[in-house]
## 1
Amino acid sequence: MCLIVITLAAGSVVAGYTFTLFNRLQVGANVEIVSASCSVSGADCTLDLRNMGTGVAVVPGPYACTVYGTTAASTINGATASVGIPPGLDTQMTCDFSSLPSAAVAGIHVEGVLTVSTGMEIPFFANWNS
């Protein structure tokens, strides 16, 4: 009987610690794409990312942008490694395409997705500029 009580008490402590840890990890990260601009002539897209959370959001690299099935190597502030974004602040990502599909025409709407190394995908929308 005593062994059962000790096991239940230890299980409660571990569960409480685990749930507290997960809650702390989930509070900080809330990255959104607040604006996007794509250039046909430059064959690139610029994304403005904002941390809407309360803690520093780590965006794990490497990154990739995909539009019309074409994927581009991407950087945040010139870096391909993980980047931390403080709460309430913006940072800029650049997606450099070596070539664009024929659907990339100035004035046409583009739908893309930013993918980070964890597999998380953030969709973005813009119009192609000349």
## 2
Amino acid sequence: MTSSRRDFLRFGLGAATISLPWPLESLATEPASSSLNRDRLILLYSNENPYGPSSKVSDAIKSAAMSSNRYPRLEYHTLMERIATTHQTTSDRILLGCGSTEILRTSACAFLGPGKQMIHASPTFEALENYARAIGSEAVGVPVTPAYAHDLEGMLKRVTASTGLVYICNPNNPTASLTPRKDLEAFIAKLPQSTFVIIDEAYHHYAGTSDMYSSFLDRPVPDERLIVTRTFSKVYGLAGLRLGYAVASPKVLQKMHKFTTEDNINAIITQAALVALDDADGMMEFVQRNENDRQEFFNQAMARALKPIDSHANFIMMNTFHPAGDVIDHFRKNKILIGRHFPPMDTFIRVSLGRPEEMAAFWQTWDLLPWTKNIMMHH
């Protein structure tokens, strides 16, 4: 973890100061200047669905706004049951969160603490690492393999009796790469019985089906140490309304539930999520659009002698052969926000896929970089 990521973010509120022990992605990525208007920016930095939500879900959001004066307690269990049905399980195996990041926080609180250890890939989504450190746990990052998969053998070597959690993001953020399912199953079987495993499937819908990948919800394994997380923030286009969930054994979820925020689900997302789960056509349209946009990105990259990491998500990471910070700043000056710096991949950038016109602007801005004509020398 770099010193900049360790540093507390401080906000002055009169005489008071609030310190946060983890960086907020938006504040770490967006320019501090108040002169930049969000509507004038191209946002390719948070792996959002640039098209969503679907028209059916949008209608549900508008309708649900009329009931925003009520707590959604009556709808809470209806949503849990609907999610359970989706995964052919029971509602006592579902835990809802304010985004899947709340699920990660409750996992840290339930299974970590002083004297405990969490193991993760490096780089990966940092939320759990930050939560672990905030409550006094050790967070151990193991570099990804040359194929950008989780180094499961290397992770296994770091496991001790104090390892409370192992975090697997698959497809991985920020690399958009896959770790083979058969390797994950073999890895999990070798872990101590006291070690719990989070399988973060935030980008599941974009991964497709193959011998290499299958969801731990679509093809479950009978292991009570597994916690599988999903989110409505990506393919469903509902990042701003914050809903995620975990699927795990009732015993595990009881431990996690103690640390959830009371009334953590809002009245609008409960209705929107129910419609989203029934809108298979809308979801598949987003998946197809993403496939088309992803392929076009690779076409444009190859035309420029670039070789991005093979992507199984709605974002792409590629080596620029120059300091990532310089490239990020270049795009920022041209009102395009791309992903933040991900150590130790210091020359790589992460680009969330946008609409075709936004991606055209991305490539036009890329071509303005002074050294792009010389990139062939690196191949």
## 3
Amino acid sequence: MKFRYQARNKGGELQVGFVDAPDRGTATNILTSHGLYILSMVSGEEAHWYDSIVTFFRRVKTTDLMIFTRQFSTLLGAKVPLGDALKNLHRQTNNKVLQEVVFELYSDIDAGLALSQALERQKGVFSDFYINMVRSAEVTGRVEEVMGFLADYLEKEVHLVSRVRNALIYPIVVIVLFIGVAFLLLAVVLPQIEPIFKESNVAIPLFTRILLATGVFLKQWWIFVVLFVGLLLALLFNYLGTKEGRAVADDVRMRLPFFRKLFERLYVARFAESLSVLIKGGVPIVQSIEIAGHTIDNVLYQEVLHEVAEEVRRGELLSRALEKQEHFFPPLVGQMVGVGETTGRLDELLDRISRFYSSQVDDVVSNLVELIQPALILGIGVLSGLLFASILLPLYNLVQTF
């Protein structure tokens, strides 16, 4: 197999290339034996159309991964040997896919691989950030502390996602019901009463005529409409899975007026928290910035942080490099990082930045939860009123003729 990698040598220079190896673990061993610090590694082989389907059914929920990481951290904190900890977790894990993954982790470690190398072979479950954090902890001897941080990190992510999901459940149910009722009215009810309007020569409003034409079309061609929408969604999701598609989606996400503040604060908090832990772990600043960039699920921020890392490698202060990216990082971030650089407490200031912006994310999410339900219900109410008015007005005109 061929793997494409990004790595840095001992001098901090970025290297990109391909390595041939029978599996990911062997490829990792080859690169590390040459003194390279791996930033990312992906399969260089052509993907098959069914890979996404297989990945979907073999996915591990973030909640299950968070529980696994918390239990793992607790066992390591109790000084349980690594192999014994994984054996215990294998017996306790309820998720069958994760249970199989834990068994493979134990087998790889028993065969002599490091924990980060074993995690590297399970990239469908563990993210690049997760793997790189464990790899840095192995270098500094702080695996227990980093596993605790990863458990806290996943717990915050699960909490944030669950709050937004719970806020959206009721509006989504209402929207689905509205779409179902609207489809029945357009495809079943309106085509039945259209002849009555034509025979009575009743004046039909423009909006009603549009709905009548739509209903006739759906009644005759609904199967093709469903197939077309399904194909369109499949093409859209396939495009969003490409690098270009992710970049376009991330750019659109950052242009939305209300959500831009939410994502910006979320990304800044995630970056500051990750960078703080990496610096505490003794990882060089340039590599820490690169790794922290992988914690942000946004291509634009990853590219910006890559530029920041290159500037720092050339001798620029991190605070000044961040201040140049004012479109992505608020001025406060650069100022506080500058204070940390001056006082020699950069990790502490980054931790404060993370807490500050995390609290702001909580405030924005709370406002979002309070506003999204009434806004959606109001919109659906207006659409429902227009839909029923388009039917009732012609009926009222018809009654007036008698």
